[in-house]
């Protein structure tokens, strides 16, 4: 990178079913909170990025970055507003493009945001829109929706490595427990493995409580050149690396359906760029759109050996208080998963942790990873963030 | 910018109604042509950007940058693939983000592409998808589609400045004439003003031949650091500036409906960055999605005084051979307008002109502007490109 970059402000709405609030309201709330947190005025913003998967289908609106710039009062300032999309990795892309924009020297103060309004459609229409993250021609027309495709991965992982149904349940149990301290989470109730396993199958072996919910919500962060960061706040968070990788969109074309190569490729590059190894990571926010996704992430990010992710979680090593806490926020499962917002929300939560003001706080965390996946793994974004103690 | 950037390869499909070719086929054709033109192999590509407005609605597919990376054989290399969207300025965003990516130092060889497959839907569905570039809640629900909103601008411009129906016709006449030498254009037939004025009203005073068509097509360019450009090709084109601005999404919230402030704001920044004035520009590719759009562009880019754009075009000053040729390619009107592809196609055509190998060639052109608009003006991207003679 030509310039290093830091996060100086974060904000989000509560995630959930916001029947009474519009797409644009959600964004503005998150954006204003991030600006207030950074102590930045609207007239200081040089550019903004908006991660959004499917407003075209959910609310029949494209051109949404200009729309949110307009509602945030930035359009009349001519602030460039760029929507980025890679299914539910759209938020991760928004953060990464904001970092590249500052690194390029084109901008100094950039807002990265993500927003999705999913609950305006019925569930059939919502599921059909979601299927647009998979390959419509080769997977969806043949009956493969996203849940079914993750179910294939789960089944293969169980067969090859002995991952158990109970280990999948423990992902949901842990993430609900972590979310109990998170005031922005959609679900703050605890659940037991027995409850998870009593919910109906969505796509065997995955049950309803293996799935993140449909959610409305928005998140935003403010990034600036690292050298200027302490002029804004006392506790900036430094972007040690932001990397993105692609893989085949279809699951059947993958090298191995028990791993997401896009995650491991992006992670490898990010660790090299940041000069860290997986053992240096104190905690992680990962993409558990389905519980199996967290098992894969724990392995593909290098916290556990391939095949041992389920056990790692089941043994409490991914819990707050354990070796490498995973999803201390509650993850997508309990925070909710407004598709385009999630990748930004992960950075918001990692920043709160690194500042020491998270709802469910990790002790002595100074280096974090966030991992955001598009669809079944066609895209992954991996960021390494730190409190600067190790820089 | 931290690093200067150059274009070393361009490619496109013919624009038109490609009933026999899919979205992914179109992109791959354009991408391969751009790589061949640059003499770059797929394994040299560090990142790609894809401009696309509405695949979610046109072909019910999101996550399209990963899809096209996959079909281009780049996904298994893990190449980051980022879709950007701002209605029909999506291609302009793709080019700009590719430039920022190289400028940031994150990547050295980046492909910017744009693609749209519009003809798979019926015209009612297509028009409804297009309306997603305007404000669905405040404009479209009230009956204001994009053509109607441009018609308001045209009527106001006629009333205030005396712009005539004949001057609007001359935009179409000139652009069809220019396209007659362009092998990639959708329409290479010449039309007379009388023919334009005999076509039915779409939204009075705009007639069918004031409107760019619905098109399928793709375009791609390869960008690299300027300092490396001559290692790829003998005739690189240098990016002197790339700027983007927003304005209110709704036309009724604009400062003035006879101008696109997003264009003039982006142009002002781009001229300052490139250290050029409008008088230094030898030719321009501008956004004539409706004929009035070219009149506004000629004014907002500073080639003519406000209110005098119609006369400028009618007097032949915007024709090849005139003072500042505008749309020597044929523009959106005659090239066709596959929404997400257009902003990239403009860079392709400007590059061909600057190299001296365009179908309808401008004499002694060494500095070009491209201007790409989203919807009715909520977004504009303005690039200044040169052959390096003035650098």
TrEMBL record, chains A, B:
It comes from the Archaea. CDD domains: SCP-x_thiolase. Residues 244-386 form the Thiolase C-terminal domain. Keywords: Isoprene biosynthesis. Residues 5-226 form the Thiolase N-terminal domain. GO terms for biological process: isoprenoid biosynthetic process. GO terms for molecular function: acyltransferase activity, transferring groups other than amino-acyl groups. This is Thiolase domain-containing protein. It comes from Halorutilus salinus.
